[in-house]
Amino acid sequence: MDLISALQFLKLNQIPPEWVDAVWDSEFTERTPLEDSIEDELAVSRDGASQSIWAILGENKVSIKSLVAVLSFFVLGGKAKTANIQQRVSSLHAASIYLLLLGIPGSIANKVFHEVLLDMCSDLTSHCWPQDSGKKRKKDGLKSSQAEGKRSKPLRKDNAEDLMKIREAVFQLVQSLLRLLQTFPLKDRPQSAGSFTQIFSKLLSFEPIVGGSTFSAQQDINKLKSVPEMAFYGLQLLCSPTHGEQKESLRRVFHQLLYVILMMKKGNGGKPTPLVPSPAVLSTRDQAVHFICHLVEDLKELARPFLQILLQHICFQMVEKSEIRSHAAQAVGMLTSQMTSADYACFIKWLFNFTRKAKVAGRLFSIDVVMVLLEQPERKAEECQDPELQCFLPHRFLIQSLLFTRRTDDSPTVQGHCLVCLAQCLELPSPNVTRAVHNLFSATGAQTVLEGEITEGSSQATQKTFRTLPFRTVEFSSTEPSDCEARENLALLLRRVKDSKVNVRKSALQALVGLLKHNVVPMIWENLEKLSECCRDPAVSVKKKALSCVGELLAAKPECSVVQKAWLQGVLPAVMDAESSVQDKALEALDQVVLCSIKAYFTGRHLNAGQRLTWDLLTLLCNECKNLSRCFSRAFGIWSKQNMVTQTFITNLISHTEAEHASGAWLLLSKVIASASRLPYEKILDAWDTMISSNDVPVTTSCHILCVMGDIATHLNTDTRDRIIDDLMSWLKTFSLPLEVICAAVETLYQLGRSEDIKQTQAFLNQHCGELVSVCEAYLAPIILSEKGAQNLNEELMVKHLHTLGVASLHCPAKVGKRTVLLVESVLTTRSEKLPGCQEELPASLPLSQFKANSMPTKVRAHGVITLGKLCLQHEDLIHKYLPVFAREMEEGKEVAVRNNVVVIMCDLCVRYTNMVDHYIPNISACLGDNEAIIREQTLIMLTNLLQDEFVKWKGSLFFRFMVVLVDPVPAIASLCEYCLLHLLLKKNPEMFSQHFIECIFHFNSYDNHKSYNKFPQSERERLQFSLKGARNREKRFRIYRFLLEHFTDAQRFNITMKINQTVLACFADDELPLDADGADILSETFRILSLKEMKLQAAQKKVVSQVQKKVFIENVVPVIITLKSLLEQKRSPVLRDLMAYLQVTMQDYRNEVKEFFSGDEQLAAELEFALKTAEKEREMEEQMDQCSLTRVSRTPTAERSVQASPARSRVLLPFTFATPQPPRPNPPSARLTHTDRRVCRLGSLALEGTVMPKGAVDNRAISTPKGDNIDFTFDDEVSAIFSDRITSVIAESSVLDVQSNEQRAPGLRQWNVQSPLRQKKKGSIV
């Protein structure tokens, strides 16, 4: 079909002229209906074109006006929401025809061009292509609250065949658009150029690009196979000089691609919203980055300033979502690779300033950018000609000035991210990066330089350290941290490990492990202890992270004994954790490191690294970490239930009992032998014989062998058992065994004699253990009864006899006579003259230390106390006699070891004889205030265990003495008390804190005039010992109050406030409590407590709670407050100041309702309103002072000498008419204007200076810059931001660039400009 036939087919001569005129008059903004018969005939039209179309049309008398009107009819038909497939396809074809006609020379002369129709045709894709076809639909299970009230738009349901038709029509339309740009210049139509830029940017994500894309200046449109490829080519065409000023074109293109790189969707005038980073979105972003790199490489100096600003806007508009930040940082890394060293240094300088002003998302993103840049090769200083910018090129600046400075950020999220990235830096291959991290945590002052060795220009970088001569001034480097700073950095990192925020603690752990792995910080126990302690952190996620960290460190340093110890101290206690997931993680680590590495042993067999590590750990467990054996037993108990301990494992263990690491093998055997079915008893008995006949067997190994012998006792025949019993008795009677072995030997003796018949078992114990008691008694009697028996005393032998006596007596109480008890008693006091007759008993009113002094050493006396306690456990009649003695000894005793053991005895007796010992709990708890830290800690642990098992109740002064330990002078004890209270005791009694809170006020102030509180009995000595009365102890008291309030629920806070009003304030208001000096102190402290921020409710439903609180406050509190105020005024009490301060804090949320609250006291309401207004003015004044901008921006550490210089000061662009409004540096007349006001003033000033707004330049532009001015980019001091689309009525869209003319710059050095708000206010009042 030729052109004329096609036009005849359109039947343009039948189109009514009136209809054509109506279409043109409406500016193609609405679809004018045609007659149905004509519309049906036109519905099957097709396109066509010819080079001589205008002549042909003229010859055939075809109306161009009618043709354009008909095409617009089809175009508008496809834009309708109810358009069908055929209408949308026809619309796209009609738009293609119009664009082709427009691209033919002479189209403007023949009046084909119309700006509205051009924009409509070029943007037709967004109307014809279903917008939801490429997106995942939301699940049907939406909440009713979200679904109700929103009328859903009808979705177009198109099948695949229909979509392909539309896609082909779209493809032809974009081809036509490209052909139009090749022949139709947009130089005088900037609005159309801006519209095309937006359209092509939207088309970038139309469909995926198969096989990637290539960018070149000239491309064959017919060879482009996808819509995004053509869109990129269209953006490239728009950057050519044909379509206007290239700088303006680049500005538009970079602005649109900004949101593609940020993976955001920008609506018309709305806030950009992040997209889900799907593979399609990521692919489009990657293509956009490559396209920008191509433009910069192609246009070079012309595009580099815009690349600088694009990077700034990526940083400025970044969101906090980690996935988006990560991808955007990679994009920034690719884009910076296209920069010259000077431009790169300018960007780093801007980034340095940006991190100090940005929001949390910006500061997080700056860290991500630094990590990406550190992966690039380090730029050399010689590549940058400007000496002021050279300091920004090294990786050291990125780490020390950009990354590490965020360690003290206000946001915990930024702090954590900084620490994580610091650890990742050490994994990078760059030696300069590793060296920079090392310098942060180690001294750098070892380098010395003689005066004659200083080279020319060395002062430009850093100052060298001079330490060559005495009496020489030492100047440390300005960029390298000193030894003191390095220690402070490490101390700060260790503090972050104990931070209050979970995320910071986890990140600090990762950073610490990285520094330890790479030998940045010393591998000492003080550093590793923090790791093992975090395995017992209150937060489950931190515990898991700590377990992973110690495992990672052990894998990196398997031969380091300190690391092995830290691993054991961290992992083994986690086996007993209350959280099952932590238990599983610890068991998994033990299984991998211990169980899986136990292989059979053969002489000459080489152990691999994993096996050596296993035996090293077991050796540590036998020596330095004996206290963890109980945790190890728990692990094997769990594994036995899971059938993880196999017969092969036990056989392999026994093969190691004769190797050099036999101690570890016996340790494992002692844990698993009970669950074994078949054992090689011969080897175990051989080991027993070797131990009995040798004195070289280590103590722990002996204990483990004895444990194994006890476990296999039931499998031995009678002869073997009797032989072992005889050997064991002979061994014990030598009294040469260590104390631990004595305990294990007696326990093994019990195992060997145990049978199903209890009487037979007891007879066996009476025989053998009774024999040991008799031997010990025979040894002690001559020493104690003889006048000179203690002169040649063998202290060690005496202790072993006492210990054996105590252990054996537990198994044969019937064999312990009164003589034995008095002998042990005499060890503690003096020789008993009437011992044989036993006619005189020990007085119960005096402590042990008050009897006649004896010559026994403290060590013997301390063990004597333990032995006496064991005797009391089996003889109830001894309890009544010795409990008062033990209680007095805790108070009056002088020997620390004796008093410590008495505490242990009393707590053990509390388990066996709870009712008897309960009376002495105040005596035990008094040791929480002992002068010796070890006794305070021991008492805290023992009482916590008793409270957990409910052998002791929170009665009397016990709770308040625990509170005093919270402010113990030893931080470790205070921390232990906090852990015991929060994680062990509060869980059992959640109301514990709130129940005792009010009484804390009276107790710690030693106030006992209240009828209900602080009435429990206590001695004057105890009262003084635990008193926190007085101003010097106020800080300690409030630390306790804050600790309690921080762990209140909102209900408890509300109730305690009301209870304080009823039981404290009301008592003073009703004269139940005298308002004397002590009463004034109590009242003042109460008002200060009520003013604490911890007293405020934290509920999510704060509005509802606030209304309830308001009602209760008006009804119950206000009357009491009014009465109290009147009373305090009469007495002229200084407490009135605290009352007003409390009201001021309380009424902050009700400052507009003061008169309603205090309608009964108008004077109080007026005073309170005045106080609130005064406080508000002071707060506003402080905020103004904080916001006072200094004209001189803060300088970077190494570029202080150049304040005026800009990072791009050598870059001068040719004049072009665009600019972006930017927050200006404060000038003296407007230094106190708000951010928005300053911006509006700046825009006005630009307009007054002769700014010209060309026709068509309103849309897509900001205020234009006066032509003829020399433009200089200034991004070193301020953030270049894309502001709202509605800045002023004449600004339709924000700009990407921030420019200033040289005339607007203040010449010379900028001066400080600080004005006092008071002075400014005074000036304003004078005017």
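Next protein, fold it too.
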Amino acid sequence: METVDYLQTVEDHQTFLVLIRPTGKLLAWKHFSRCWDRIAQLNCVMIPGQKREMWLRYKRNYSKESNEWGDFQAHRKALGLISVGKCSNDVEFQELFESYKLEKEKYSDSLYNSRLIVFGMNTDGTEISHEQQRELNEEESSPPTFKIDPDEPSDSTISSVCDSDASVNSTSDKSQNGHINIDDTSGDPLRRTNDQNVSKNNENASKSLTGSNKVATEKTGSQITFLRPSPKNDKVEKLAKTEKESLSRNSSSGSIRDLPGSEVVFYTSIDNCEGLEEGVKEFVTSLFFVLEGKRLDRSFERADKSVLLLAPFEKKDFVGVDTDTKSYKKKCQGRLKKHLGDLCLLAGLSGEAMLHYSTAVDILKPVNDWLWMAACYEGICASSVISAYKGTQTTSIRRNQSFSVKRGVTVPEKQKPVSTLHSYSNGLQELPDLPSKSGLNADDIVEKYKDALMYYSKFKSAAVIEMEASFKACRILILHRKYLQASDFLQNVVYINLQLTDEDRINRYSTLSTLYAKIGFRRKASFFKRVAAMQCVAPQNPKPNWTLCHQLLVQALEGYRIHLDQKDSQVKSPGQMNGWPVVQMRVLHELIYSARRMGNMPLAIRYMTILLYTQLEYMTIQEKRDLVTNLVNFTGQNEGTTQPLALDSGVIIPHVPLLNIPFVKSFKVMPLTSHLEPRKLQSVTDTSSDSVFIFTPLNLGATRNDAVQTDMDFQWVEGDMSEVQLLVDNIMPDELTISQITLICEGIEIESFPLSPKLPAEASSYLIKIIVRPLSTGTLKILGYSTKVLGVRSNCKLRDCPTIPQTYFNVKVIPALPEISLTSSLPKSASFLSFGEEFNIVTSAAAVLYNGQSSECIVTLQNNGKLPVELVNISLESSRDNKEFVNEVFKWNQSNIESQLPLQISGVLCFNLVINAVGEYLLKNAENIKSYDLLKSTATEGKVVEAVLKVEYSGGAGLQESYCRCSSIGLCIDILPSIVFHKWDVTLSESQDHCYLLFDIQNISDEEIQVKYSKQCITLKNEQIKRIFIEIERCEPTMFKGKTSEEFSQFLSNFVDISWFIPSMNINGRVGIESLKWSQEQQQLFYLSPVSWVVKLDGQVISPLHIGSLEYRTGKLIRIDVDVSVNTESLDIDGREVVLTMCCCQDSENDSIIYNTEKYVSVIGSQSLFIPKFSSDGNLSHSCLYMFLCSGFYKFEILMIVKGQGHDLQSEGNITKVKGHDLESKGHISEVKGHDLESKGHITKVKGHDLQGEGHIAKVKGQNQSEIICQTSCEDSTYKCSSVIEVNIID
């Protein structure tokens, strides 16, 4: 026995072996395949009238040597033959029938019955007419359909298909047919499957068997016809008679000669044979009844007449043996019992079979018949398994294996862990250990099989039986989940020494690999699969099969942890160890070599890229160089592809990008240059309401700090060059040339600019910039990059790069915008600036100015883009503290800019930027001449003014979307000090309409400065101080009504023009007084007074500009004459009461004024003059005499108080306190220091005067060289003489 059935299972012991053979030369292979598919689906038949079922397995090829082992094990005997042929006339039928007879003669020793199925003739055996042939040709051109006549008798129990797992192997011609086994094959792609029609066929076929209890006696409605005399088919009858006579001479007992004859069934075509399945059912049922008769005959056979059953190799050993010995008779009896057990298993009586096997063991054991005892043990195990799991099979129909697949080679599938296997190809679910009531448990089965294998090993000629028994035991243990014990039986297969052909060796190792995979021994499974692959191309093999070698190597990859699809690998980065690098490299090299020998160069290149990607870290420098050299040579002959490669076996080898050549450390999408980066227009962004920040300690939601940012916070512009930066490493020992590197994008169309960088050997952190240009607007999704390295194109997706957390990047592309260049006429700054990159500074401008100097700068905008500029907005940016100050330094004309728009392509726009060196003109200790502390901040030195001139511009479609660009000029102005003020004051002039401004100015620059003012010019050297006088006209008080001190200084600067000139540098400037602070008294001197005073002291007129005091001796009378004239045009006091008063006072040491001088001064006359109604054309005159009793310095204060309208002089009212005056009234009495006045009304507080009058008198503080106008709420006014009247009394 030379051929091993590697798909043998325990359930094969209960199956009928039926051969299906193509006969003749006219039958096409595809027609035979379709007929085979339909017949092979029938694997289980219920016996009519009995509760038993018969199991079937089909083969196309079966050797005569294998058939000779039918006496040793009955399931190895071919019991039925179905020949399929084609003919169209009588001559062809004669040839076909002769071929059919030869097939029967080959298996005549074992056949119970046979059939010949003929296609191409009418059902009665006549030839098909031309019209019928034309119709058949039309039917063959359309897809075939399987249909069975439903008009079938169904008088008894409906038979069912017990199992439809008809997995058929083309090389071993083995059908599993629903047995308890592990299916090692996959479906046949040539087979047509129609589950609905098949189930209907099975149902109708079952019904057809219930109407008859005997075989070959009546017609059951199908097109299968048993041989009998027929007037329409005499030639069939004649041929049958001849066949019967020839077979009766050559056949042995139990052969076909016992049947009335063989059958011939005619069908017009393969598409028109609806009763095919029914006829096959009737045929196999006839086999069962023949078998049942044989079983019954054997059961009642006398022991003394029994014949010794022999294995094929035993025939020569029993020649000349004495048949009368006791041991010989025991062997006859024991072997007969064992044979009865085989027949019982085939007949569906597993319980009786077990009894026969046990009896046979008892009989054969004393005579040491080891071979047949081993067969008995194997039969006991088979009976136990069949009994234990009877009824657990599922009735499902499966596809058969393809005819084109070699023996033992299965279609690779992803292996699952052993713990997750829940179903098997034979339809059985994974079951717990459930021993049968009359059978053996799992442990007993193991022991019996071990004994059987031990006995088989005693016979070298039984090596095939031993190997098949090992496979059966392994599959049973897999079913019981005893994987370690199953591995022991597989190991026994390895040690069996058997002379096999190369094909059988391949099948042997492939079967071992498959079973090792099923018990979870992945690495060992891959080892035997690789051994099988090497056997395909062994040196002694005359016809090496590189295709099969490659297919087996691909199936062995998973056990070595080599994944063709890197997504299935647990390795997250190239070079990470997962498995055994030395073995993996060896296997991959074998794959590369097999692909080359197959002539599939793209496949070899794909394997080389996998080798580079997974094993580069573990290669030596020389191995790297050799692999690179070979890859370059391969790609030079046939450029690799990025598309997945499909093998003939159905395996898809996806594209494997070279992520590690070069190795990308970072992938950064860059924004446009800051001055080209688009942004929303300021007018659009300002309209958005400011958001309110509310802090809360509550955790209102989980924050995703670890979220990966995929949406860029910037935009690209249509038509502009954009950039992506890659930081890469070259891990190769030689210089690496990247032929091409571009981006992989989707969403919008882009224009790529491929690069060809060269990376130095073992370079680290090499920067590569990829340039692209978006050609439309929308969202650009960047998925990765594409390279061409060593001739291999690689599409590297970001999701596959271990160092890049993002799987993609989204960049928004906005409509096109114009582009300008920005320049200025000033030189660039050497060091700049305190502002960051967010200000988009493209150039700088620097200037050095002296305080008060002005200069101009020409700013130029040139349109370098492809769109006209339609909008230009100019603004200044600076720190928050000096924004107002910077706005005073830089000025421009916006209307001039707008008049030059739109700016066409290549056009130029210019505007003047005026720079004013605005600075402080006060030293740190500067003060007004009278030392009033009115300054909060001063500056003594120059300063540096830094600002950004921001130019926003837009146009085209980008402007419609409210986008713009911003370019800026950094401005740096050094303001050097020039002229500063030390002190300043106001004094009256000789004219009542003018006053003088006094300034003490100092030159704090390093140059000599000429100062020009009021048509005068002075020269100041460094650090020199000089006082200047500037005469200005006094103004009406109404002009300053409601103005603040700052507004007063601004107004006053309009009348003061002080300029400077530096001859050595030929520059000039202006000195501003806007920062000077003026006191209230100083402001009063600027007002034009409506009252004129003439004061005489002892006849001497005292001028307002009088300085110093007059000397008198104590006891001398001093006369004071006061004449007051009122300008009625500016002051309307006609009909109003007026009070003129004077008093004498002294200055104390603490700068306060003492009005209580009655002890030192005697007054002769009245100090007050009261006029009830003032005449518009009248003047006031008053005199008074003073005598001083003590020496010292004394001053005189003179006031004129004009009462408001609506007051009655005699009415009672409120009397206000006035310092220095005593007033009498009938109302409330007020205090007035220094004066005694009578009044009937409200008297206002006035320092140093006694006033009498009705109405409100305002508070007035006495001041020197000033005249104050005060008004109360009742419009009372007080006027003071501005002349300084001071006397020095000496003894």
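About the second fold: Residues 276-299 form the longest helix (24 residues).
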